[in-house]
Design a protein that fits this description.
With about 200 residues, the protein is an alpha+beta fold. It has 3 helices and 9 strands; from the N terminus they run H-E-H-E-E-E-E-H-E-E-E-E. It has one domain.
Length: about 200
């Protein structure tokens, strides 16, 4: 029994290590809002519908992650950052947050939904939160300007890459502060699955 227990432990450890090496760079969809595309809340809902909002898993094909560039001010960038919690079960653990990332200072993040079965999420729930945040001054549409960003060229590779090989996916440079803001959807091994989470960093030019 002792030999069997040790052998099983070694086997599971090897499987765990193997899985840790197979979380590839996740597929990510980028959206960008402009005033010509309608109201900001409605545009966000339209994007979320493409990412599985109110759809059964078998009828949806969400990306592992998505980011919506809403706009920028002189102080920083407004985004919606979301995706699937993991690749364990499709469309069953969606997450998304409204975030303000300043060029200087601390990020502010407001959860839109978390660990959410997407077929149970309705557009009314999303719209209610977005309009509430607008009324509270979390974001002001009239202040938002178009975002100029760069996509990491390494993200364009056809062959699968290990997630640890890509330090960032999208970058916005701010000449005034001589710095940049970088977004990356991290993929980390957990048990037999890959878990996903947005990480945002700042870097001096």
């Amino acid at each position: 029994m002792k030999t069997y227990t040790i052998t099983l432990f070694v086997f599971l450890s090897l499987i765990s290590q193997l899985k840790a090496q197979t979380c590839n760079v996740p597929d990510v969809q980028l959206y960008q809002w402009t005033a010509q595309q309608g109201t900001l809340p409605r545009f966000v809902v339209a994007c979320l519908e493409k990412e599985g909002l109110a759809k059964k898993p078998e009828k949806s094909s969400p990306h592992r992650g998505f980011i919506i560039f809403l706009g920028q001010t002189n102080q920083g960038i407004y985004t919606i950052e979301g995706g699937q919690g993991s690749d364990a079960v499709e469309n069953e653990a969606g997450f998304a947050s409204l975030a303000f990332t300043p060029f200087k200072g601390t990020r502010k993040v407001f959860a839109l939904y978390k660990d959410q079965p997407m077929d149970q999420l309705t557009e009314q729930i999303v719209l209610k939160k977005l309009w509430k945040w607008h009324q509270e001054g979390v974001y002001q549409v009239k202040d938002l300007k178009s975002i100029s960003f760069t996509r990491n060229p390494a993200f364009n590779q056809v062959d699968p890459q290990l997630a640890s090989s890509l330090p960032w996916m999208y970058q916005v440079v701010n000449a005034a502060t001589q710095g940049s803001i970088r977004w990356n959807l991290q993929a980390k091994s957990s048990m037999c699955w890959c878990k996903y989470q947005w990480k945002v960093t700042k870097k001096a030019l």
